[in-house]
Structures are given as structure tokens and as C-alpha cells.
Amino acid sequence: AQSVTQLDSQVPVFEEAPVELRCNYSSSVSVYLFWYVQYPNQGLQLLLKYLSGSTLVKGINGFEAEFNKSQTSFHLRKPSVHISDTAEYFCADGLTFGKGTHLIIQP
Amino acid sequence: DVKVTQSSRYLVKRTGEKVFLECVQDMDHENMFWYRQDPGLGLRLIYFSYDVKMKEKGDIPEGYSVSREKKERFSLILESASTNQTSMYLCASTPSGGLRGDEQFFGPGTRLTVL
């Protein structure tokens, strides 16, 4: 069975600092990896996805992620965060979701 | 833009009641999904449907059923609500094709409280 592990339940970071949200997936024949964001009181929306091709994937709002097959990871990064990035972030492999990481931006 | 709507944002029901959660999508998507979201547990798949009148169990189907009589509408039914079904329920849809490889479009969620 597939599984997705988000290693941090909560990540506090200062505004304008870089951030990395970590995600590991269980090995599978094929992977379809996604990062979604959930702002307070809203549904999820797609940040970016990896299906194949280039291992560095760029998404909306300045986020990017790198697919690393040897480490079975798909970490999400942003070089400089803003208060508006405060949200819950979910990594997914197809229909299997991680438990989420709450990104807390401190002024 | 794809729009997925859910009939209620907040719902309060009593133990033992039959509860219907409705979801409608307006982009002719083939696949529709119901998840529940709980703090610290992420999203867990309850049921999904890949065509009208077709349904498949997800990871946690116990205590739930679904109905898809029309392509745009996917209903989640709690036959006899219990307090452990208090949760946020999210509906999603994807276009035709592989179930796992498409971006999912989510509704805003229904926060259900069972007293």
C-alpha cells in the first residue's frame, strides 16, 4: 500500500526567511506527486505536481519542489515566505495524502 | 474555472440521524471523491466514483454510503450518524483518465458536528 509521510506537523518560520516542508513517499512502480495548500476555512488547492520529466517542479506563489527518486522524497521549498503563506500544506501521491504540515509565519 | 460546491458549510446533527452531504461539480468531470479531514490525520478517502452509478470503497468506508445518480452530483450518506463521524468532509473531482495522476479540485468542505 502507498503511504505519504510529512515529517513535520508544524513549521514556524520568520517572514522573508526560506522554508522547506518535507515529504517522503513509499516506493511504487509509478508515482504521481502533488502538493496542495489549504487556507483557513477553505478547501484544498493545487500548488504543484510531478508526473514525469524534470525533477524540479515550479508551482504557484513562488513554491517549488524537487522529486528525488533515490531518497523517495518530494520536498517543498520557498526562498522567502510571506504572512499570506500561513496555511496547511498537504503532500499527496495520487489519492493518498500525508497528515499535513502547518506553516506558521512569524512577523 | 472548475467549481465544486458542497451543500452546507456547517451542519449539526444528532446521533442516529440520517445525514446527506451533497456535492456538485460543474465541469463534466468523470471522477468524484469524498474525504474526511481530521486534525493530525490528514485526508482519508471514504468513497469515490468513476462514473454514474459506479462507486468504490476508499480507505475508511465503514458507516458511510454514497450515491451518484447524475454525473455532476455525488452524495455522501451517513445512515445513522455517530459522534465519531464529527469531522470536516471534503468533496473533490477530477477529469477522466487515471484516478491517481490528475489534479483534484476540491469543494470548500462541510464541517459536520454530531451531538
- Provide the gyration radius of chain B in Å: 13 Å
**Portion in beta strands of chain B:** over 45%
Distance between the termini of chain B: 37 Å
Give the class-level CATH name of chain A: Mainly Beta
Q: How many helical stretches of chain A?
A: 0
How would you describe this protein?
The complex is a heterodimer of chains A (107) and B (115). Chain A is an all-beta fold. Chain A is 0% helix and 52% strand. With 115 residues, chain B is mainly β. Chain B has one domain (4-114): Immunoglobulins (Immunoglobulin-like), CATH 2.60.40. Helices cover 0% and strands 56% of the residues of chain B. Chain B has no helices and 11 strands. The termini of chain B are far apart. Chains A and B meet through strand 6, strand 10 and strand 11 of A and strand 5 of B.
Write the layout of secondary structure elements.
The complex is a heterodimer of chains A (107) and B (115).
Chain A: E1 4-6, E2 10-14, E3 19-21, E4 23-25, E5 33-38, E6 44-50, E7 56-58, E8 64-68, E9 73-78, E10 87-93, E11 96-97, E12 101-106
Parallel strand pairs in A: 2-12
Antiparallel strand pairs in A: 1-4, 3-9, 5-6, 5-10, 7-8, 8-9, 10-11, 10-12
Chain B: E1 4-6, E2 10-13, E3 19-25, E4 31-38, E5 42-51, E6 54-57, E7 64-70, E8 73-78, E9 87-94, E10 105-106, E11 110-114
Parallel strand pairs in B: 2-11
Antiparallel strand pairs in B: 1-3, 3-8, 4-5, 4-9, 5-6, 7-8, 9-10, 9-11
